[in-house]
Description:
Layout: E1 3-5, E2 11-13, H1 41-48, H2 74-79, E3 84-92, E4 99-103, E5 105-110, E6 117-118, E7 131-136, E8 141-146, E9 153-155, E10 158-159, E11 164-166, E12 171-174, E13 177-183
Parallel strand pairs: 5-6
Antiparallel strand pairs: 1-2, 3-4, 3-13, 5-7, 7-8, 8-11, 9-10, 9-12, 12-13
Amino acid sequence: MAMKRCENGHYFESEKHTSCPSCGVANLHIQPTVAVGRTGPAAQARADLDIPTMARGQAKPAAVERDPGATVGVVRKKMGIDPVVGWLVCVEGAEKGRDYRIRSERNFVGRDPKMDICIGGDDAISRDNHAVISFNPKKNTYLLTPGEGRGIIYLNEEEVATPKELKAYDMIELGQTKLLFVAFCGAKFTWV
Length: 192
């Protein structure tokens, strides 16, 4: 799998796409990044997810057949899609200006392209599981949890040693990268 970086800092598979699908190219098929060898409900749900990106004005993506024995996330099970529930925006670091989609349930963060949220260009971030950002669809809450990486995570300048609840516009620091948290789902909107 050959990864290419567009002029806006997004990574994409050059073998699947002729140009960056994150930059607004209509009617392209985007598959989420999945960690190889990872197990568990969130990883399996993302591995099984194969839903075309909706073009502007398109009402609903086409149905996709899935492995009947695969574990599926709650939101995806109810809706048939794994929608965005929030974003991280890089405000300082190698990928300044880039955004990262947060999906329902657990999102593994690291610099390996196989992570759910891949923050490349900062070798102070662990390749695998530097942190986990989760969204609880029952409570509409977000948590930041330290991963298995060596580096310390900071939330609003405070070290994160145990899971901490995220609030809109919180600042997360991983390695030499600062990320602004933007919530989409919450008190005013929810997918389910």
